[in-house]
Specification:
The chain has seven helices and seven strands. It is an alpha+beta fold. The protein has two domains: 99 residues, Homing Intron 3 (I-Ppo) Encoded Endonuclease, Chain A (Alpha-Beta Complex), CATH 3.90.75.20; 52 residues.
């Protein structure tokens, strides 16, 4: 919950934010709602900001999807996140929002292919084509150590790939899982 404070006219910053939010709602043809007057964050979410006094540096901010959920649906328990059914981070339509844990959010991202996996992962050292070559080389009887040396990775990494513990999507694709 963002830190609340009283602004010059005696109202709470959270009340002002809610007023701005409700006044700015625009309903799009897609069924998603957007809030004019909200600000886009670097991660793609949008928020409402309320300054106390700029010289004092106090700022109230709340993401529009969280504002929408708490206003139209109810309290957001501390340990839960507000997730989007529509996968549109600027959406604040309460019908598109639901509560979930951190794990629920990760599972939702994975189910919708929005998570960084395979080549999209910042930690990937191999391409999908290279992983498929590892399967092919292993099928021909080449030793894991030789495969590892060829691709500049560890023998352990090769074993994890071959057993489907790493690059599991490709493993399932290759082995019909």
């Amino acid at each position: 919950m963002p830190k609340d404070f009283t602004i010059e006219d005696g109202r709470k910053a959270s009340e002002v934010a809610l007023e701005r939010f409700l006044r700015g709602i625009v309903k799009e043809d897609t069924g998603c709602w957007f809030c004019e007057g909200s600000y886009r964050l670097s991660n793609g979410y949008f928020e409402i900001k309320v300054d106390r006094i700029k010289s004092m540096g106090r700022l109230y901010r709340n993401r529009i999807h969280r504002l929408s959920y708490s206003h139209f649906i109810g309290i957001i328990p501390r340990h839960l996140f507000v997730l989007h059914r529509c996968d549109n981070r600027k959406c604040c339509n309460p019908k598109h929002l639901f509560l979930g844990t951190y794990d629920d959010n990760l599972k939702d991202m994975a189910a919708k292919d929005r998570s960084a996996f395979g080549e999209r992962s910042g930690q990937a050292k191999l391409s999908e084509a290279q992983v498929m070559s590892i399967y092919d080389l292993h099928d021909t009887g080449m030793f894991q150590r030789e495969i590892a040396d060829r691709f500049g990775i560890t023998q352990t990494a090769v074993g994890l790939i071959i057993r489907g513990k790493r690059w599991s999507r490709l493993y399932k694709k290759r082995h019909g899982g």
